[in-house]
Amino acid sequence: MCNGCVQKEYPDRGNTCLENGSYLMNYLGCANCHHRDFVMISNKATEDDDGEEIVTYDHVCKNCDHVIARHEYTFSVVDEYQASSAVVTKPVEIHTVDSVTLRVFFCVVQEYTMLCMLCGKAEDSISVLPDDPRQSAPLF
Fold first, then answer.
1. Which three-class secondary structure state does DSSP give residue 39?
2. Which domains does the chain have, with CATH numbers?
3. What is the DSSP letter of 65?
4. 124-130 long-range CB contacts below 8 Å, 24 or more apart?
5. pLDDT by residue (tens digit) across 106-125?
6. How far, in whole angstroms, is CA 27 from its chain's centroid?
7. 5 φ/ψ sector (left φ>0, alpha ψ -120 to 50, else beta)
8. 113 exposed, middle or buried (CB, 10 Å; 0-12, 13-18, 19+)?
9. CA 66, CA 91: separation in Å to the nearest integer?
10. Has UniProt tagged this entry with the keyword NAD (predicted)?
């Protein structure tokens, strides 16, 4: 990996996670051949590690095959239970404790991460339920 090829190492990209492609706004040009041309992708590999999909590849200079950065993208599905006193549909269980009704929801969340000197670092999570209990407002 080459910090001479990028404007900023590992820029914060918020929740923008790239499974493929390159963030060219951060590309200065090749520090090896001094050309600013297209960035190619090579050595792309996908593996499944205990339910987590990991995609890795190298960003390389089109002219001299200099490795600019190593890109890693992960995707996983997380099953979690969440208790809420909010009124939302389809609870898995309903419990009443000290006259407060709690609804327990099964929530499936997709999580994404990206780490790359060129493209930056980012994390994102998205609920795949039609009624996301994480987005509901509490009653009190």
1. strand
2. 1-126 (2.60.40.4240)
3. -
4. 124/15, 124/16, 124/17, 125/78, 129/90, 129/105
5. 567 788 899 999 999 999 88
6. 21
7. alpha
8. middle
9. 54
10. no
